[in-house]
Give the backbone structure.
Amino acid sequence: MKIGTNVILLYSTTYDINDLPEGRDVTGLDRRIRRLAQNPKGVSSAELISVLVSVGFEERGGKGSHRCFRHPKVPGVFLTVPKQNPLGRAYVVHALNAINRVLEQLENEEQEH
């Protein structure tokens, strides 16, 4: 995975964070996700958790200073977010990959119906 200023490498596919998939309007959530991608080193755990909840992730407990999340409609997507500020870059990159996977899956399901 490689994150640059304007390009994110997710699942071996390069996306320009300024381009959204066809049919998607720029929303507040899109802008928040872009901010995470543009500066993955300066993200607080509260900010990341807020974005995850907005995408539909649910908290599934945790132990100590870590909180675990999963998405109810996309099996196999699990995240652990520690309570630290700022978060390590790897946590943010992993979350961005999971968010991308969830949004793609939900978009594909929407097109099928």
Q: What stands out?
A: The beta strands are 7-10, 13-16, 58-59, 66-70, 78-82. The chain has one domain: 7-112.
